[in-house]
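Question (not urgent): is this output format expected?
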Amino acid sequence: MEYLHHNSQGTIVHCDLKPSNILLDENMTAHVGDFGISRSKDDSTTVSLGDSKRTSSIAIRGTIGYVAPEYTGGGEVSTAADVYSFGVVLLEIFIRKRPTDIMFKDGLSIVTFAETNFPDRVLEIVDPQMLQESDLGPKIPASAKEKLVDQCLTSVINIGLCCTKPTPSERIGMQEVAAKLHGIKDAYLRGAEETVV
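Got this back:
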């Protein structure tokens, strides 16, 4: 997403980011697919890919649960809406609940669920299997392992929440998201090495 928003010729807004549109290759590197409703954004105008018609706002068909709140009112295509969708995907991966899960009703969403439990109860809402698979080896004391995992998971959930702020201007950009995620990975690996040594 960072590349689509910042490193390609012009800005591409995906408009329908969700897990089924993210493909993993043999190295577990993620690739975004299905650009059926994506838009190329050039300055203040938006161009539909495959369509030369220019418009400043368009009706968005996204996927329920991943669509940014501003799109429900016919809001303008923006990279901030992709950031929102990315945040929902990130929360879904770590909490292991779809944004359309039956538990999310009566005003509760995956975002409000994460907000309500952040930061004190993050370990209670993340996927328990993820906690089991975070085994850093027998040489690391359990308390040090739990602290390292808690710090990293809290940081990741925080990024998801920064991406899913209610208004586009409050959300962080994909460059910042990518930098923060790389930083968390590096801190996790560095922390694991330092704890063993």
